[in-house]
Amino acid sequence: MSMNSYTIVFLLFVLCSGAAAYDALDPNGNITIKWDVISWTPDGYVAVVTMNNFQMYRPITSPGWTLGWTWAKNEVIWSMYGAKATQQGNCSMFRFNLPLSCKRNPAVVDLLPDAPYNHQIANCCKGGVLSSMGKDPSASLSAFQITVGAAGTTNKTVKLPKNFTFIAPGGGYTCGPAIIIRPTRFITPDGRRVTQAMMTWRVVCTYSQFLASPRPTCCVSLSSFHNGSITPCPSCSCGCHSSSNCVTKGVKKPVLQCTEHMCPVNVHWHVKSNYNKYWSVKMTITNFNYQVNYTQWTLVVQHPNLNKATQVSSFLYKPLMPNLSTNDTALFYGRKSYNDVLMQAGPKGNVHSDLTLQKDRKTLALKKGWAFPRRVYFNGNPCVMPSPESYPYLPYSAGTR
């Protein structure tokens, strides 16, 4: 199959599955930004801004998020805790006590973990990295405090910012308008007092893979103990080889390693063994990108027997949709301080895990590709699968080969 054919198949998959706006495996996934005005000042307000990554398996990786907007009037940022504005802008109208930023369309980034303690607030300072909700809800939240001047001083005079943007590695996010909602209620740690924000508005940003990249970003290869051949990633899965988009060993400032598939990431599924009550698989993720370390990476695999996974080495694992009767989709991710970062292309640019599954005798059969996954996602993006007729076949079986 040619590159163009694979591209058409991939685009049809994206559009037909609703991945551009709706993900059946993550129907409520989004980035929700909430502004809570906690006090008024003589010329504006103090607000706490929180960002929640409600996406089950799509993290925000290094170098992290950038949040932007356009002021409705001539607001300025006097100070910030937990984040910083990237540009000061033109503050020439102020003779003394310059604001932190006078940009009409400021861009804000998270502080690094080693930021001074007196510049931090709760849930800040992660370098903009957010875990996916399915992996670690406690690490999927980011927050900062902002003091805004030259703004309204009551909930009737404040004008909401507009044109919100949420930029993350890979792009693909589109933000809706700010909408005023019921003020947030805050409960003290001892649970004995409740306070309320003066005013609250919310912005929801959704992800589209097609906006992020019209081409796929990962592919799947297959092999099995019962067949000596390997089914590679389809040729040109993520584009075709050219001198402008890949490099060979020894070239300075490389971008992407030259391969037949030209994907930044390859997921390999190898059926290791098949016993009376159990069977096992080895999963390997290889990074062919010379410029990216994949922090907080996630791997989602759909297979009918994943509801009976009994042992997983190296990776951490949890069912993605445990409340469904099928429960055939699993979320895998790296162990902290061991393989939670998939390093750049090279000798250390891979992570792997051994997976043991209990047999479901009613459905198990190595024939007809049953042992191979139905769908695979890396960092929330679907990977290109080989065509079923190319799967490793059983010896002496009547295959198309």
Automatic annotation (TrEMBL):
GO annotations of cellular component type? plasma membrane; side of membrane
Give the primary localization class: membrane
One GO term (biological process): plant-type cell wall cellulose biosynthetic process
The residues the entry assigns to the signal sequence are 1-21
A Pfam family this chain is assigned to: COB_C
InterPro entries on file = COB_C, COBRA_pln
The membrane topology term of the UniProt record is: Lipid-anchor; GPI-anchor
Ranges for domain COBRA C-terminal? 217-249, 252-392
Record's keyword terms, sorted: Glycoprotein, GPI-anchor, Lipoprotein, Membrane, Signal
Localization per Swiss-Prot or TrEMBL: Cell membrane
Q: Does the keyword DNA damage apply?
A: no
Entry similarity comment = Belongs to the COBRA family.
Spell out the protein name for this chain: COBRA-like protein
| Organism of derivation | Solanum bulbocastanum
